[in-house]
Please model this.
Amino acid sequence: MADKKIGRNDPCWCGSGKKYKQCHEITDKKIFRYALEGHTVPSRNLIKTPEQIAKIKESAKINVACLDAIAEAIHEGMSTAEINDIVNDVTYSMGGIPAPLNYEGFPYSVCTSVNDQVCHGFPSKDVILKSGDIINVDCSTILDGYFSDSSRMFCIGDVDPAVQKLVDVTKECVELGLKATKPWSFLGDMAEPVHKHAEENGYSVVREIGGHGVGCEFHEEPWVSYLTNAGEDMLLVPGMMFTIEPMVNMGSNAIYTDPENDWEVYTADGLPSAQWELQVLVTEEGTEVISW
Ligand code: MF3
Ligand code: CO
Model:
């Protein structure tokens, strides 16, 4: 909002070195008008500065390198523990830290979620990928205190066409959400095509677990739903960064968490679930994909 404490000729709060009136003043006033109309608006700390964006992009190089290395190496007969090893090797060799490791007690460096596992699957030497499996590899990285987070699906051997379709449609959902992400629109504008496309194909979208702001922390505000509608939810402002990562279930949206470890999430009906995740920056002109 228009900050009384900053004079128009003072340096902008964002650290650009420019005068406030030549930098964020107009944006701040615009945000304030949306707030007056009753919209949820981002707090200033959710708007990344150019310096922060540059650091987050460095982190994302490692994140993408991990997923590229996994895409090269993944094969039938491989254990998901080997995927964890790849994430460690690539991340540490590039000077980063795997963000999941010890995050709220998470015991591994990456999440590997197979078939009816919705998310937060534990890599294990006992989980051997077999023909017909689908797997989400969710990779998140810290470099110099800045965070990147993205995930991809991989299909192993001969996958049932109906399951392949779930994987493909889920990716389309993310692409449609990205296309609908625009400065001065709302998170609901992004979410509506995501859930519509999933539902038109007979699938359901997980309600309880969503996306998040990302960059300066692993999980920042806003919490991101893929079930809201156009015009709803938080205003999108240039400099905001968040994930588009819907979990799409072939059957019902009901899920449960393994009570043994309080992490691994499964579909209640045992049918497969798919997820793709990208990290997007809202810019003045549109969007920039930071990692995928
Ligand atoms: N990468 C996941 C996400 O997309 C985070 C999982 S939390 C973890 O938000 F501890 F399991 F890594
Ligand atoms: Co995420």
The chain has five helices and 15 strands. The radius of gyration is 20 Å. The mean pLDDT is 97. Residues 23 and 123 are 46 Å apart (CA to CA).
